Amino acid sequence: xxxxxxxxxxxxxxxxxxxxxxxxxxxxxxxxxxxxxxxxxxxxxxxxxxxxxxxxxxxxxxxxxxxxxxxxxxxxxxxxxxxxxxxxxxxxxxxxxxxxxxxxxxxxxxxxxxxxxxxxxxxxxxxxxxxxxxxxxxxxxxxxxxxxxxxxxxxxxxxxxxxxxxxxxxxxxxxxxx
Length: 178
What we know:
Elements: H1 16-24, H2 38-60, E1 75-84, E2 87-93, E3 101-108, E4 111-118, E5 122-129, E6 135-142, E7 145-153, E8 158-164, H3 168-171
Antiparallel strand pairs: 1-4, 1-6, 2-3, 2-5, 5-8, 6-7
């Protein structure tokens, strides 16, 4: 039978001197690199992910936390109602310290809205009929109590209902919760 040829095992030096001799002799050497510790790699990955998460949280949370907290203003419940047929432009006072009204263009009648109005402000609802005219009536109630009513008729007819709310310092404990 034929001769069996064995492959020589690679030379693995045990000391630095042997490593130098092996290279000098031209023998094949296998480098031994230390493998990274898996626990260390995992810990580094977790730390990197945590840092990335914190950075993204800081960037994405453009935070409303920097603004001062909203000041609580005592309010009263006000119901505005406009009856009739057709449509009307309706402007009413709602919870706004600036006093600006809210306008609903071309609201289908009948229309009703209950809002919180800051004490010390006037509760107001204005109606303006359209080019088609018609008839409409506005009413205003504060905390369930009827305050005022008014009627509008004809082309571009107008009506306004107004009611004064007590000042916060005069209201005592009667303010509605906002």
